């Protein structure tokens, strides 16, 4: 999901940096056209890379795609004032951590945290559904159009198929 998010943001004109701890996935991201990737195994290296790239301001939008609470806390630290953290991954496990510094950073830097749980969206546009910025049907149409045109790259992401 993170790879697709990176591709979609890059297609929309964003300056994307894909972060991953597994070199194999970084290679796949590059094969999918993600121009800038960084191994995030070492937190200090990732933070330095992001801050250097943004003149010390932090990223405008940080997408957390794995649903791991400590990484969400790091995403907040990488976000600039008035930026956004998008939670593409769903946190599932317990995290024994002090969340006060995370909340303070969100509060003091005016960071918006958004969930991306698509199953709450309407299937089609409904006149009384608020807000209706996205629908499952419109998103599927856009996705299929990007796949058909080759703009959204999937070939490097395919894994061996198991016979049935």
Keyword list:
164 residues; alpha/beta; Rossmann fold; globular
Short description:
By secondary structure, the chain is an alpha/beta fold. The protein has helices at residues 2-11, 23-31, 43-53, 69-78, 100-108, 136-149, and strands at residues 18-20, 37-39, 59-64, 79-87, 112-115.
Distance between the ends = 25 Å
Question: What order do the strands of the largest sheet run in, or round the barrel if closed?
Answer: 3-4-5
CATH class of the largest domain equals Alpha Beta
Overall domain count: 2
How many strands appear in the DSSP assignment?
5
**Largest sheet properties:** 3 strands, parallel
Oligomer: single chain
Folded structure, characterized:
It is a single chain. This protein is an alpha/beta fold and 164 residues long. It folds into 2 domains: 2-116, Rossmann fold (3-Layer(aba) Sandwich); 117-152, no CATH class. It is 38% helix and 15% strand. The chain has 6 helices and 5 strands; from the N terminus they run αβαβαβαβαβα. It has helices at residues 2-11, 23-31, 43-53, 69-78, 100-108, 136-149; strands spanning 18-20, 37-39, 59-64, 79-87, 112-115. Helix 4 links the parallel strand 3 and strand 4 (79-87). The longest helix has 14 residues, at 136-149. The protein is globular, with a radius of gyration of 17 Å. The model has no long low-confidence stretch (mean pLDDT 90).
SSE topology:
Layout: H1 2-11, E1 18-20, H2 23-31, E2 37-39, H3 43-53, E3 59-64, H4 69-78, E4 79-87, H5 100-108, E5 112-115, H6 136-149
Parallel strand pairs: 1-2, 3-4, 4-5
């Amino acid at each position: 999901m993170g790879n697709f998010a990176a591709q979609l943001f890059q297609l929309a004109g964003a300056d994307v940096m894909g972060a991953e701890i597994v070199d194999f996935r970084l290679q796949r991201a590059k094969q999918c056209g993600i121009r800038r990737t960084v191994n995030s195994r070492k937190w200090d290296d990732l933070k330095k890379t992001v801050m250097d790239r943004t003149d010390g301001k932090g990223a405008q939008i940080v997408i957390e795609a794995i649903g791991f609470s400590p990484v969400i806390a790091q995403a907040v630290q990488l976000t600039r004032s008035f930026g956004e953290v998008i939670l593409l991954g769903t946190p599932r496990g317990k995290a024994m951590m002090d969340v006060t510094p995370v909340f303070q950073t969100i509060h003091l830097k005016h960071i918006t945290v958004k969930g991306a749980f698509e199953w709450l969206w309407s299937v089609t546009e409904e006149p009384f559904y608020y807000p209706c910025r996205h629908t499952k049907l419109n998103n599927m149409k856009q996705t299929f159009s990007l796949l058909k045109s080759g703009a959204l790259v999937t070939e490097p992401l395919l894994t061996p198929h198991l016979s049935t």
